[in-house]
Amino acid sequence: MTPDPASTATGGTGSGRTRAEVGQVVTHRRYVPYSHAHYAGNLVDGAYSLAAFGDVATEMCIRTDGDEGLFASYSSVQFLAPVRAGDVIEVSATLVRVGTRSREMDFEVRVVGRGAPERGASAAEVLDPPVVATTARGVVVVPPAG
Prior knowledge:
alpha+beta, Thiol Ester Dehydrase, Chain A, five-stranded antiparallel sheet, 7 strands, disordered N terminus
C-alpha cells in the first residue's frame, strides 16, 4: 500500500515519522463573541478556554504527526483571570514532551484586547501586557507510526 502523499509530505504517520519536537508552538487568535457570554459582566465560562486548547492541540498534532490526535487528559488547569465576551484572546500550545504516541503540551490563554465600554459602545483597547487568563497542561495521543 502506498502512503498518502499528503501525510508523507508533512511527515505524518503515513511516513512512519513525526516532526514533533519539544519547544514547538502553535498559536491562535480569536474574538470572543457575545453569544458565548453566560454570566453577569459578560463573563465566558471556563469551558471556552478548554475548547480553544483543544483547537490548538489539534493543529499541533496535524503539524507534527499528520493526524488530529485525541485529547487524553489534563494534569492541571488554572483559571487566573476572567475571559469576557468582546475580548480578543491568544491561545497557545507549547510541546513540552514527546513520547512514542503521546504529546504533552502547556497551554495558555492570554487576553490581548478588551472592550472599553466606558469610552463608547464599540470602544476597545489593546492590553499591553496581555492578561494571562487560563493555563493548563495536557496530553494528546496520536496513532502509532507506520
